[in-house]
Predict the structure.
Amino acid sequence: MIIASIELREIRLPLIHFFETSFGRTTERRIILARVIDSEGADGWGECTAGEGPFYSEEWTETAWATLENFLAPMVVGQEIENAGAAYDLMKRVRGHRMAKAAIETACWDLEAKRARVPLWQHLGGVQKEIPSGVSIGIQDSPESLLEKVDKELRAGYQRIKIKIKPGWDLDIVRRVRARFPDIRLMCDANSAYTLSDVPLFKALDEFNLMMIEQPLAYTDMFDHAELQKQIKTPICLDESVRTPEDAKHAIELGACRIINVKLGRMGGHAQAKRVESIARERNIPVWCGGMLESGVGRAHNIAMATLAGFTLPGDVSASARYWKEDIIEPVVKVTSQGTIIAPEKPGIGFQINRARIDRLTVRSEQVK
């Protein structure tokens, strides 16, 4: 297919409730959407999952927009690509900027699946028609508020609860959640807020039968994680430290983790995420789909990715209504009473883009031809 043009839009989407991690508190998402249009007028949509500031990673909304507009989109427009995965190779000259690259690359996958008249999840090689869903609950104003939220999500059917922790909001919080909910599948996410000097804390967390502790140490580290994993029983899950398929291989060989969180943006799109899934599956390391407060476009791509065979643990893909009063896709993403999401049957991402809503939310746009 020949890529004729790429349309970029930034939308502002307010969250129903603030989401707080060790990085800070988010109340509104600035989301960049990429619409890739081929020479026949067919299109596909992708989403850049970069945050509002350079805290989760070096990428953030402003750098992603400039990189997409000035470098990545011009590298792809006018090119004939053999398949969607090849879009990533066209952008290889730019180092890093994986979230920006993923916006274009995933849009190409949506376009290609539509052209083939098949659902994206099947086009990717997915095998799970129904995926297990978990929720990520941010740091709250009080422990009581957190317990109320956990109870609400469990009653909604979600199969796994993830709570964010940071120094001062960790051991006692986990203890209270586990005391109230002794049998749930529970994990915590530190977002790199600790160091090896905190080994006693992580040893103490061992007693609470956690599924995993996600990214406890530095966001670029593997060696200290390997040392920590030797000293605790709870599996470590790496997130920020695994940015490439090669990182995944090295982390597993070092013993730095027993689980990997796969995020499309962090990997640079579906082709790279598929490679990570394959590497982990071949080594019996489970993976799951992490979330970045995506709109419906990014959420739809996450659903498709999470149908791959190696995604054996409940991910962060949850219902649209947990985050947005009104999403930008139709129908909105819903979770069954059993805590699962059913992969759509329509071609491409399987959801209709609400163009009128996107138009209302758009604060800037650019067409690269």
About this structure: The longest strand covers residues 3-21.
